[in-house]
Design brief:
Order of helices and strands: HHHHHHHHH
Strand content: under 5%
Number of domains: 3
CATH architecture of the largest domain: Orthogonal Bundle
CATH class of the largest domain: Mainly Alpha
Structural class: mainly alpha
């Protein structure tokens, strides 16, 4: 007895399915649909339509993502912009969203929060410095945070 082959979902069905799982940027949705061998011209038409009706909004996605990332995991502007670009958002949009996210808190203050938390786990100055660098903080922000926390840190 032959198996019942599954009917391939239409482009629209697949797009809705993907968008129902999580918010995607235009570039992410395009890439996912292209990887499933849908027609590129039809994909672009669908993406344009979805932008018109508000199903896709890269600007809002970028701002929301940037703000939530800073809340969940403090990081520097460089790493935040990199994460936004990984979501296939344009350089300009990534920079704008990072700028907006850092309008409420300075990178220096965020770096200081990370240092204060790290000091409770280790007194190794070098490890804390490396952690801040991995989190994408600028050299000046790292130095400022380290010097502000030095009196209470008791570095090794």
């Amino acid at each position: 007895m032959a198996k019942n082959p599954r009917k391939r979902p239409s482009l629209r069905e697949k797009a809705v399915d993907l968008l129902s799982r999580r918010r995607l940027s235009r570039g992410e949705l395009r890439l996912k649909l292209l990887s499933r061998k849908y027609d590129p011209a039809e994909i672009e038409d669908l993406l344009d339509r979805y932008e018109e009706v508000g199903y896709l909004d890269d600007e809002t996605l970028a701002r929301d993502y940037a703000e939530s990332r800073l809340i969940m995991k403090p990081m520097g502007r460089r790493l935040l912009e990199l994460e936004l670009r990984k979501r296939l958002l344009s350089d300009g949009l990534a920079e704008s969203a990072a700028e907006h996210a850092f309008s409420d808190i300075s990178e220096d203050d965020l770096a200081e929060q990370v240092v204060r938390k790290a000091v409770s786990l280790t007194k190794d100055r070098k490890k804390i410095y490396q952690k801040l660098a991995r989190l994408g903080f600028q050299y000046d922000a790292i130095e400022s945070a380290m010097s502000k926390c030095e009196p209470e840190a008791g570095w090794e």
